[in-house]
Design brief:
The complex is a heterotrimer. Chain A is mainly alpha-helical. Chain A has one domain: MetI-like (MetI-like fold, Orthogonal Bundle). In chain A, helix 3 crosses helix 14, helix 9 runs antiparallel to helix 10 and helix 13 packs antiparallel against helix 14. Chain A starts with a helix and ends with a helix. Chain B has ten helices and two strands; from the N terminus they run ααββαααααααα. Chain B has a two-stranded antiparallel ribbon. Chain B has a single domain, classed as MetI-like fold, CATH 1.10.3720.10. By secondary structure, chain C is an alpha/beta fold. In chain C, about 35% of the residues lie in helices and about 25% in strands. In chain C, strands 1, 2, 3, 4, 6, 7, 8, 9, 11 and 12 form a ten-stranded mixed beta sheet that branches. In chain C, strands 5-10 form a two-stranded parallel sheet. In chain C, about 50% of the residues are buried. The chains are: A mainly alpha, B mainly alpha, C alpha/beta. Chains A and B meet through helix 1, helix 2, helix 3, helix 5 and helix 6 of A and helix 1, helix 3, helix 4, helix 5 and helix 6 of B.
Chain lengths: ~300, ~290, ~290
C-alpha cells in the first residue's frame, strides 16, 4: 500500500512537470464523462418517468384512492378509478412467498458450495448457477403455464394452477442464482482463521455454520436475500404469465393475483400515449422505481455499512 | 485407548447428515434447470429442423419457421452491445483508474447498483419516454437496443471493473516509472491485461439481452413483420417476444412450436454463455500473475 | 474466426436487401391484428413489391396514429367517433374513409364437462357484471359442474383496454356498467382457450373462429323467451347472434395507389378465404 502511494506521489510530481497533450486531456474528459454515465442514467430514468406521469400525479391522482383502493378500473364506463392496492398486495405476496422458498434453500446451497465443495466442484457449481441465471424470464413464464400449472392442479387438487403459488415458485427459481452467488461470496469473505479456530475447539461443520459463519456473514447473507427481493419485485414477463393476472386480494396462495409490473406490461401497449391511463401506468412505474431503489440501497448499506 | 466416545461418533453422524442434507438441497436446486431443458428438448424436437430456423412464419404464424425472429434478436443484441460495451468499459476505467475514494465515487457506485436493480419494465417505460418519444426514434430497433444497452450497462461496468482491479498494481507502477503517462499505461498495460475479463462480461450481457422481453415490448418489437428490418429505424421481431405471442395470443399454433421456440432461445443463450465460460477458463490458464 | 465473420456479414446483408420495397404501415386493434397479419402475409404473394407492416396496440392507438399521419391504415374494432373524424379534418385536412373488413362474433365458452348449453345475456351479466350475484355455477339454474371444486365460477377475461374486452362489456352489460374485478385477465385468446380447456370451473370469451373442440361454445339468447343462438358464420353475418360486430379499417385522405390496391384486395374473395381461415367472419356483401 505504501508503495503505491509513493508512486502515486511520484506520478503527481511528474505530471506537474510535464504538461499533457491536448488529445490526452480530451480523452480523459471523455473517460470522466462516461464515469458519470450511471448517475446521469439513473437520474434520467427518474426524470422521464416523472415527466410522463406528472400530469396524472398533479390532476387525477388521489393518494388515498391510489394506495388504499383495490379498484383498478382504468377503462370503466361508470367511473374511472386507479387503485393499486390489489396490485401492490399481489407484488408483495409473490415476493414474500418466493423468498420464503428461495432464501433458506439458497443459503443452504451457498453453505454447501462454500464450505463442503472442493475448488473444482465450486467452479462447476458456479457455472451451473450462471446457466440457471441465464434462462430468460419469458421462458420461465412459459414453464409456469405449461409445466407448473398442471403440476399444481394435480398435486393440490385446486381448480386453477395459474396463481400466487405458481408465480412464487417461478420467482424462487429465478432469484436463487443471485441469492446463492451473493451468499456464497459473503461466506467466502469470512476469514479462514475463524473456521480454523472453531475447528480447533472441536466444533462440527454444523456448529461452525450456525455459531460462527452465520453471525460473521450475517450482513452479507441478508444482502443476498434483499437482492433476491429486488429481483422478485421487478420481474415482469414470468409473473405476467404465471399469476393468473386477476385484480383481487388473494384469499389463499391458490388464488390468482396480479402484480404491478405485469399490469404495466399488459396494459401499456393498448393505452394511447399521453392519455390518463398511460400516465397512471407510469405512476405505477414510479412506485416500482422507488421500491427497488429502497431495496437496493438497504442491500448496499448492509454490505458496505459493516466494512466501514 | 483412544476409541472415539459415543459423543464423538454421534457428532460425526450428525455432521454427515448435515452434509447430505445440504448436498441434496443443492442437487435439487439444479435439478429443475436440467428437467426444464430436457423437457423443452423432448417436446420441441419434433419441429426443430433447419427449415424451422431458416423459414418465415406463415399462415398467421401457425406454421413455418422463426427466421425473422432470430435476425431481429441478432440486431438488437449486436446494436445494444455496440452501445453499452464502450460506454461501460470507459466508465469502469474511470472508476478503477481515476476516481478518488470520495463521496462522489460512492454515489456513482450506488447509481450502478441501483441501475442494475431497476425492474426491466421500468427500463421499458424509460425507453419509451426517452428514446421512442423524446428523441423521436419511434418504436424501432434503435430505441429497443438503447433500452437494452442501458439495462446492460451496470453488468458490463461491474465485470470490467473486476477485471481491471485484478491487474496487479505493480504493473501500473512499472509503467509509470518508465515514464508512461496514465493514459498510456491504461492503453498499453491495463487494458490488454484485462481484455479477457471484459470480454467474458460482454458475452454474458449478450446472453442476457437475447432473452429480455419486457424492455423491448414497447420500444421496438413488432407482433409480425412480413419483411426483415432494413435499417435500425425499422421495427423487428424477436425470439423472446415471439415465444410470448405464440404461447399466449396466436390461436392454432401446433403445441410443439412454442416449445421449439423456447428451446432455440435457451440453446442460443446457453451457447453464448458457454463461450463466456470457455473464454474465462482459457484466459485464466494463460494469466501472467 | 473468419467463418464467423462471414456468417455475421451474411446476416447483415440478408437483413438489408429489400430497398425497393414499398411499405404500408398498418396499426391498431389487437382483435384485428391476427387477420391483418394473415392478409399481409398473403398479400406478399399477390404483390411482392408492397409490404404491409402490421402492429397492434389497440383501436384507439391505431386511429390516433392515423390522425397524426404516422400510419397508412388504422385497424379498429369499433366505429370511428365523430370527434376523431373532425380532428383528422382539423389536423391535416383529411377525410377518413371507412372499410368494413369483416365481422367478429364473440363466443362464450365453457369446459366440455359443464352441462350448460346456453346462457341468456342476463345470466352473462350476472356472472361478469359488477354487482352481479352469480358466483357459483349453481346460481345459474342450479347447474352442477362435475370436476369443479366448490362449484365456483372462474371468470376468464381480457385486459381491460383491449377491444375484445370493451366490446364484450358493451354487448353484455350495455354502456353504463362495468365488468366485475377479480376475473383472470389473460393476454390473448390462446391463453383464454387453453385455460378453459384445462379448467372445468371456467368460463371465457373470445373470437368465434378461435374455438377448438376441447371447449364448448354456448348458445346465447337475448332474454328468457328468445331463441338461443349458436355462433356460426351465418348467425354472425346476419347479426342474429347477439354478440357480433363489424370490424373496420380506416384510411385518411386520398389513399396512395398501393394502399388503394390493398384495400380493394381485402374485399376480394381471395381475402375472404383468409378471413375465414383466420377465425373471423367475412364482411357481408353490400
Amino acid at each position: 500500500m505504501s508503495n503505491s502511494t509513493t508512486s502515486q506521489a511520484f506520478l503527481e510530481w511528474r505530471q506537474k512537470k510535464t504538461t499533457k497533450p491536448t488529445s490526452e486531456k480530451v480523452i480523459e474528459f471523455i473517460i470522466k464523462g462516461a464515469g458519470f454515465s450511471s448517475i446521469i442514467l439513473i437520474a434520467a430514468i427518474l426524470i422521464f418517468i416523472l415527466k410522463e406521469s406528472l400530469p396524472f400525479l398533479l390532476s387525477k391522482f388521489d393518494f388515498k384512492e391510489f394506495f388504499m383502493s383495490t379498484e383498478w378500473y382504468p377503462a370503466s364506463v361508470v367511473k374511472i378509478r386507479y387503485g393499486i392496492l390489489a396490485l401492490l398486495v399481489g407484488t408483495v405476496l409473490v415476493t414474500v412467498i418466493s423468498m420464503l422458498i428461495a432464501v433458506p434453500l439458497g443459503l443452504a446451497c451457498a453453505f454447501y458450495i462454500s464450505e463442503f465443495c472442493s475448488p473444482r466442484m465450486r467452479e462447476i457449481y458456479k457455472i451451473l448457477i450462471e446457466f440457471l441465471a441465464a434462462i430468460p424470464s419469458v421462458v420461465w413464464g412459459f414453464i409456469a403455464i405449461m409445466m407448473i400449472n398442471p403440476l399444481i392442479i394435480n398435486t393440490f387438487n385446486v381448480p386453477i394452477g395459474l396463481n400466487i403459488l405458481n408465480a412464487s415458485i417461478i420467482l424462487a427459481l429465478m432469484s436463487l442464482p443471485l441469492i446463492v452467488s451473493v451468499g456464497e461470496d459473503a461466506l467466502r469473505a469470512v476469514p479462514e482463521t475463524y473456521r480454523e479456530a472453531a475447528e480447533g475447539l472441536g466444533a462440527t461443520k454444523w456448529e461452525i455454520a450456525i455459531r460462527v459463519l452465520l453471525p460473521a456473514a450475517k450482513n452479507g447473507l441478508m444482502a443476498a436475500a434483499l437482492l433476491g427481493v429486488g429481483r422478485a419485485l421487478g420481474e415482469t414477463m414470468a409473473v405476467l404469465m404465471a399469476t393468473g393476472h386477476s385484480i383481487q386480494i388473494p384469499q389463499s396462495i391458490f388464488e390468482p393475483g396480479r402484480t404491478l409490473t405485469a399490469t404495466i406490461a399488459a396494459e401499456l401497449g393498448e393505452s394511447p400515449k399521453g392519455g390518463e391511463h398511460y400516465q397512471a401506468l407510469f405512476a405505477i412505474g414510479l412506485v416500482l422505481f422507488i421500491l427497488s431503489f429502497a431495496v437496493n440501497l438497504s442491500a448496499d448499506y448492509l454490505i458496505r455499512g459493516r466494512r466501514k | 485407548m483412544f476409541r472415539p466416545s459415543s459423543h464423538l461418533i454421534n457428532k460425526e453422524i450428525k455432521e454427515k447428515k448435515f452434509k447430505n442434507l445440504l448436498s441434496s438441497i443443492t442437487f435439487f436446486l439444479f435439478l429443475p434447470a436440467l428437467i426444464i431443458i430436457l423437457w423443452l428438448a423432448i417436446k420441441g424436437s419434433p419441429v426443430l429442423s433447419w427449415d424451422f430456423l431458416t423459414q418465415d412464419p406463415i399462415n398467421g404464424m401457425t406454421a413455418g419457421g422463426i427466421f425473422p425472429t432470430i435476425v431481429g434478436t441478432f440486431w438488437l443484441v449486436v446494436l445494444s452491445v455496440l452501445v453499452s460495451c464502450p460506454l461501460g468499459v470507459i466508465a469502469a476505467i474511470y472508476l478503477s483508474e481515476y476516481a478518488a475514494d470520495n463521496t462522489l465515487t460512492r454515489i456513482i457506485r450506488l447509481a450502478i447498483l441501483n441501475l442494475a436493480g431497476v425492474p426491466s419494465i421500468v427500463h421499458a417505460l424509460f425507453g419509451l419516454g426517452a428514446f421512442v418519444l423524446f428523441m423521436k426514434m419511434g418504436t424501432s430497433i434503435l430505441a429497443a437496443s438503447f433500452t437494452l444497452a442501458v439495462m446492460n450497462l451496470p453488468v458490463i461496468i461491474t465485470s470490467t471493473l473486476e477485471s481491471l482491479k485484478a491487474v496487479p498494481h505493480s504493473y501500473r507502477e512499472a509503467s509509470w516509472n518508465v515514464g508512461a503517462s496514465k493514459l498510456q499505461t491504461i492503453r498499453y498495460i491495463v487494458l490488454p491485461n484485462s481484455i479477457p475479463g471484459i470480454l467474458t462480461g460482454v458475452v454474458f450481457s449478450v446472453g442476457r439481452s437475447a432473452g429480455e422481453t419486457a424492455a423491448i415490448l414497447f420500444t421496438g418489437v413488432a407482433f409480425y413483420l412480413p419483411f426483415l428490418p432494413r435499417s435500425v429505424f425499422d421495427q423487428c421481431m424477436s425470439l423472446s417476444m415471439h415465444l410470448f405471442t405464440i404461447s399466449t395470443q396466436v390461436v392454432g399454433v401446433p403445441d410443439a412450436y412454442p416449445y421449439a421456440t423456447a428451446l432455440v432461445l435457451i440453446l442460443l443463450i446457453l451457447s453464448v454463455n458457454s463461450i463466456a465460460v470457455i473464454l474465462r477458463s482459457y484466459f485464466r490458464t494463460k494469466r501472467k500473475w | 474466426m473468419r467463418n464467423i465473420f462471414y456468417l455475421v456479414m451474411m446476416m447483415m446483408i440478408g437483413c438489408s436487401n429489400d430497398d425497393r420495397m414499398l411499405i404500408v404501415q398498418n396499426k391498431g386493434s389487437d382483435t384485428l391484428v391476427n387477420l391483418a397479419q394473415a392478409w399481409a402475409e398473403e398479400y406478399k404473394k399477390v404483390n411482392p413489391e408492397v409490404a404491409i407492416a402490421v402492429s397492434g396496440g389497440g383501436s384507439g392507438t391505431g386511429i390516433a396514429a392515423l390522425i397524426n399521419g404516422t400510419v397508412d391504415i388504422a385497424n379498429s374494432s369499433r366505429a370511428i367517433k365523430d370527434e376523431e373524424r373532425a380532428e383528422a379534418m382539423k389536423n391535416n385536412n383529411k377525410v377518413i374513409n371507412e372499410f368494413v373488413v369483416g365481422m367478429d362474433a364473440l363466443a362464450v365458452f365453457v369446459h366440455p364437462k359443464n352441462p350448460l348449453d346456453g346462457l341468456t345475456l342476463e345470466e352473462i351479466a350476472c356472472i361478469y357484471g359488477e354487482g352481479g350475484k352469480c358466483v357459483y355455477w349453481h346460481d345459474i339454474r342450479g347447474t352442477k359442474v362435475s370436476g369443479c371444486h366448490e362449484n365456483k365460477i372462474i371468470r376468464v377475461s381480457r385486459q381491460s383496454n383491449s377491444g375484445t374486452y370493451q366490446y364484450f362489456r358493451e354487448a353484455t352489460l350495455g354502456k353504463k356498467r362495468d365488468l366485475k374485478l377479480g376475473s383472470m385477465d389473460l393476454n390473448g385468446s390462446r391463453e383464454s382457450i387453453d385455460l378453459v380447456e384445462k379448467t372445468p370451473c371456467a368460463v371465457g370469451y373470445s373470437g368465434m373462429g378461435y374455438l377448438n373442440k376441447h371447449v364448448k361454445a354456448l348458445c346465447i339468447s337475448k332474454n328468457d323467451n328468445a331463441e338461443c343462438i349458436k355462433p356460426t358464420l351465418q348467425t354472425a353475418t346476419d347479426k342474429s347472434y347477439p354478440i357480433s360486430r363489424e370490424l373496420y379499417m380506416y384510411t385518411a385522405g386520398t389513399p396512395s395507389d398501393q394502399v388503394k390496391a390493398y384495400m380493394e384486395w381485402t374485399q376480394s374473395d381471395a381475402a375472404k378465404v383468409i378471413t375465414i381461415k383466420a377465425g373471423y367472419v367475412p364482411a357481408p356483401k353490400k
